[in-house]
């Protein structure tokens, strides 16, 4: 499973990237706002840092304008992925931009039927939002499972990019059901390493080591 980082924080991306943990990056207008950076500048910086796909989202709502914005974003670097909302206009823009050989991430997916449409429009990635479905008492993981089944039934190559990840359990469950990619904030990815038994075990080893009176170096 690929790990994308859902942030425009350059330092956080660089820290995980140095460990080989970053297969790509995703941003959206809210993330750009939080970064306080210019979208074109920060996307260029991220693209230079990371080898994998870097999603940058259009903000137009009408297909022709989305296509124009998508082309502009794609000029930033080879690894830009144009992020488009799951609307009819977004699907039209998806068809055109993927036809030009650009990577497209169709976002704000909340149903399996929407994911089916995105695959038919040639999307490179589909972004179902787990956390926001959980927020309204639905089950975001059910959606990931349904999309996996549908895409496998018909051999669609669109990659399932599970988004709106709020916990390490979401990441575990995505890996179990076979999401192709997860995108998560850096702090959630870093939490994957934590286990109380690791901490307890390490504490005991350190105490016992101190009693040996030895040193390695
Ligand atoms: O990339 C979009 C996404 O991951 C949104 O997450 O937590 O704002 O629902 P969240």
Explain what the structure shows:
- With 217 residues, this protein is an alpha/beta fold.
- The chain has one domain (2-212): Aldolase class I (TIM Barrel, Alpha-Beta Barrel), CATH 3.20.20.70.
- It has 11 helices and 8 strands.
- The protein has helices at residues 10-18, 29-35, 39-49, 63-74, 88-99, 112-120, 130-135, 140-154, 168-177, 186-191, 196-212, and strands at 2-6, 24-26, 54-57, 80-85, 103-109, 125-128, 159-162, 181-184.
- The chain has an 8-stranded parallel β-barrel, surrounded by 5 helices.
- The longest helix has 17 residues, at 196-212.
- 36% of the residues are buried.
- The mean pLDDT is 98.
- Bound molecules: SN-glycerol-3-phosphate.
- SN-glycerol-3-phosphate is lined by residues 6, 26, 28, 129, 131-132, 163-164, 183.
Sequence stretches where pLDDT stays below 50 over 5 or more residues: none
Q: Could you give the distance between the termini?
A: 38 Å
- What share of residues are in beta strands? 15-25%
Radius of gyration: 20 Å
Which structural class do you get from the secondary structure elements? alpha/beta
Number of strands: 8
Stated plainly, the CATH topology is called TIM Barrel
The ordered string of helix (H) and strand (E) elements is EHEHHEHEHEHEHHEHEHH
Name of the CATH class? Alpha Beta
Number of helices: 11
Instruction: Report strand order across the widest sheet.
Output: 1-2-3-4-5-6-7-8
Large-scale geometry: globular
Largest sheet: 8 strands, parallel, barrel
Number of domains: 1
The CATH homologous superfamily? Aldolase class I
Q: Name the bound molecules.
A: SN-glycerol-3-phosphate
